[in-house]
Amino acid sequence: MSKDFIPVLMGNDINVYSMARAFYDEYNKKSFVFCKTISGPCQDSDILTLMSDTKIDTQSVFFGKSKSVCKGAYRQNDIAHWLR
To answer: Is there a contact between 13 and 36 (Cβ–Cβ < 8 Å)?
Structure first.
């Protein structure tokens, strides 16, 4: 099974942290976490990357942030084969 993926999660509560921990423990992958504000258990974690925006629940902001994650991964050649 291929392990080429980027975990993307929404929120910043204990459930999101638990999912990020599971991805990191199993696949050694940091999760990208989208949230409105930075707080709670995800706040100072080294196993995830937080991206906060108070308007993340709007379509244009969510897709804009998602696109930037994909472009960043593409530049690092992590997901270049997905975008061909």
So the answer is: no
Residue-level pLDDT at 4:
75
Please list, in sequence order, all residues whose beta carbon lies within 8 angstroms of the beta carbon of residue 8, skipping any fewer than 6 positions away: 31, 32, 33, 34, 66, 69
Q: What is the DSSP annotation of 24-84?
A: HHHH--PEEEEESS--GGGTT-SSEEEEE-TTTTSHHHHHHHHHHHHHHHHHTTSSGGGG-
> What tokens were used for 59?
């379509």
CA dist., res. 17 & res. 84, Å (int): 32
Per residue in 17-62, pLDDT (tens digit) is: 999 999 999 999 899 898 998 888 888 899 998 888 899 889 998 8
